[in-house]
Design a protein that fits this description.
This protein is an alpha+beta fold. The protein contains three helices and seven strands.
């Protein structure tokens, strides 16, 4: 098996990061660099997803792990290899969240192919992670602004 990962943190709570991640994997792009996802059923383990990475052909993945606000993973068969993409959310005590995006390449030739193929596949992880976290932070800011507007309206009311 060959593996790589990219981690980053945000002040947004895990529930908001999860909401953005769920929306992305359900077909709502988070930014101009987002891969495209088409969900073929409920957002649940066993559901297939058509994934179209930027500038590449579509592939079919299957959701293989889903624990709301904690873990999302999908798996794609590619030749004799299995590619597992996993997002793990780790909430902070201060309300923020660390997110780790992991790629695992498994199969007969994974140790030989992984060092070349893996970095090509995972090369966009930092950009994709930045879009995910930015989307979560925008949602937090919008919710805060709405709450402040409602409070201001109530004070005038």
């Amino acid at each position: 098996m060959w593996t790589t990962q990219h981690s980053a943190g945000t002040g947004a709570p895990a529930s908001v990061v999860w909401s953005a991640l769920r929306d992305l994997h359900s077909g709502t792009p988070l930014g101009p660099a987002s891969d495209r996802f088409e969900l073929h059923g409920p957002f649940a383990v066993g559901t297939t997803v058509t994934v179209t990475p930027q500038g590449q052909d579509s592939m079919t993945s299957e959701i293989v792990e889903l624990e709301p606000e904690r873990v999302y993973a999908d798996r794609t068969a590619f030749g004799g290899l299995t590619l597992t993409f996993r997002h793990t959310l780790a909430p902070h005590s201060d309300g923020g969240t660390d997110v780790t995006h992991t790629l695992e390449i498994d199969g007969e030739d994974a140790d030989a192919v992984g060092p070349e193929l893996g970095p090509q596949i995972a090369g966009d992880f930092p950009v994709a992670m930045a879009e995910l976290l930015r989307a979560a932070e925008v949602r937090v800011a919008e919710a805060r602004a709405e709450a402040e507007a409602a409070e201001s309206q109530a004070d005038r009311g």
